[in-house]
Task: inverse folding
């Protein structure tokens, strides 16, 4: 079953994102951010529920961008459990995300993907996306828990 995420999905989404990132994220901060995003019209999180647990998640952010002169959707997180890969879960989550972005009025959907994720890159190309940009990043906080930022 595919549906919009609810706060009760937090632990399942957390597990998938920790697996995706290959590290244990701080759960209190994760759950606070998850709750904030669920309450925001600028985010749309879709889950695939199978046998009572979250088997896949795709989290979108909607943003007005000056250089587009309109709205763009960005895939912020996208993960499918290992046992569910190759079964169409990712394809369906992506299709639902595209529909949600269109319904919001977005002219484009984008994603930044770690260079190591060659399988994800192949997936995005199969789904009609083009690799047109570079993304650059710089770590600013040695302690990346973001604790202070949640209080802003």
Result:
């Amino acid at each position: 079953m595919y549906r919009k995420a609810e706060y009760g999905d937090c632990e399942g989404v957390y597990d998938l994102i920790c697996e995706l990132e290959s590290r244990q994220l701080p759960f209190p901060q994760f759950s606070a951010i998850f709750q904030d995003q669920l309450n925001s019209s600028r985010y749309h999180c879709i889950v695939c529920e199978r046998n009572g647990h979250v088997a896949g998640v795709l989290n979108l952010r909607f943003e007005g961008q000056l250089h587009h002169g309109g709205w763009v959707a960005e895939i912020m997180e996208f993960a499918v459990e290992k046992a569910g890969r190759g079964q169409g879960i990712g394809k369906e989550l992506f299709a639902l995300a595209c529909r949600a972005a269109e319904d919001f009025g977005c002219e484009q959907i984008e994603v930044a993907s770690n260079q190591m994720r060659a399988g994800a890159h192949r997936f995005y190309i199969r789904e009609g996306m083009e690799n047109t940009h570079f993304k650059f990043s710089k770590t600013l906080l040695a302690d990346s828990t973001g604790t202070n930022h949640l209080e802003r």
About this structure: The mean pLDDT is 92.
